[in-house]
Amino acid sequence: MVVACPTPIRSENIGAIELPIIDLSAERSEVSKLIVKSCEQYGFFKVINHGVPEDVIEKMEEESYQFFAKPASKKQGAGPANPCGYGSKNIGFNGDFGAVEYLLLNTNPLSISQRSKTISNDPTKFSSTVNGYIQSVRDLACELLDLMAEGLWVQDTSTFSRLIRDVDSESLLRLNHYPPLLKDSLRDKNTSPSSLHPPQHHHKNSNSTNNNNIRIGFGEHSDPQILTILRSNDVGGLQISLEDGLWVPVSPDPTAFCINVGDVLQAMTNGRFVSVRHRALANSCESRLSMAYFGAPPPHVRITPPPELVTSQRPSLYRPFTWAEYKKATYSLQLGDSRLNLFRMEADDDIS
Ligand SMILES: C=C1C[C@]23C[C@@]1(O)CC[C@H]2[C@@]12CC[C@H](O)[C@@](C)(C(=O)O1)[C@H]2[C@@H]3C(=O)O
Ligand SMILES: O=C(O)CCC(=O)C(=O)O
Ligand SMILES: [Fe+2]
């Protein structure tokens, strides 16, 4: 019945917002309208009744905890991240750092099965868990993309989802672990991995953003791909950048997925949807674990908006490009750099 809280509400005392929460079991045309509105206004929304089975999420989370609880020397066996693999503190190739360790995986099953050998003592179990999770979140991403196309009155409703269903899609799965802020100072005294266990409390906000206490886990950026499906444990940390320049914490909800528009979808909707900058802070006392699926196109398909989204009142904002070109630009830049502007019609920068 209740479909969404369509307007983010800024919470009076903690400065958090509630993103629109969209119930996917509600009436389809209502759902698609709310999704479109959220993508136009905030580029972010949460979904509930999303159809991803709880046990699929729990198993994936458990494998992630197990991996990050290993000694550093063992984890390094799955690295370095180039860009896939295990990374700690270094992000990308251009000098970005954060208080985060991560596993970045190509979602191709063959690649997962090979990587698993360096990640888990039971690679078969790890692969099957990861493949199961990817399959479920990909289905969710495709469903959301179809709903978006419907809400935008695009006739070919598979126009976006087709790209991530393609066998050559370059979608990624990223597991991020943000160790607690206080752990570093205690490390020499106590090296127990107990801090990796899922916290017992509910809805913690990483609201400790005064200058003495802030620690950037994953710096400000937009996601380059089509759509991101993010699930986190109940430790806050994600913040989104609103137009007024404020960083606004998003409250964590392990039962929901947080969805955000990527740069490619901004281009494919001819700028109607916005790929919003966000970041993640490490929490003082507890481990944040997030699992992000980035739905990406195959490398050589031309990215252009469907005809319905280009009109004389709204001419093409971006020149056509391929994901291979976009990825090259992305990896040549720093995390916080803006890439989509390089592809604007009026841009004459040479990115080759
Ligand atoms: C510094 C970088 C890391 C990143 C590639 C980049 O050069 C700029 C974008 C970064 C980002 C952000 C969203 C995703 O986490 C990611 C996998 C992606 O596709 O773009 C990362 C890249 C990465 O960590 O490899
Ligand atoms: O951990 C998070 O909540 C955000 C991570 C993120 O933005 C990313 O991996 O691209
Ligand atoms: Fe991101």
Quick rundown:
This protein is of the alpha+beta class.
CATH topology, by name, is Jelly Rolls
Q: Could you give the order of strands across the largest sheet?
A: 3-4-12-9-14-7-6-5
Helix count from the secondary structure assignment: 9
SS strand fraction: 15-25%
Q: In percent, how helical is the residue content? A: 25-40%
> What is the string of helix and strand elements?
EEEHEHHEEHHHEHEEEEEHEEEEH
Fourth-level CATH superfamily? B-lactam Antibiotic, Isopenicillin N Synthase, Chain
Structural class, please? alpha+beta
Radius of gyration: 20 Å
Instruction: List all distinct small molecules, including ions and cofactors, that are bound in this structure.
Output: the ligand C=C1C[C@]23C[C@@]1(O)CC[C@H]2[C@@]12CC[C@H](O)[C@@](C)(C(=O)O1)[C@H]2[C@@H]3C(=O)O, 2-oxoglutaric acid, fe (ii) ion
Mean pLDDT: 88
Beginning-to-end CA distance, first to last residue: 51 Å
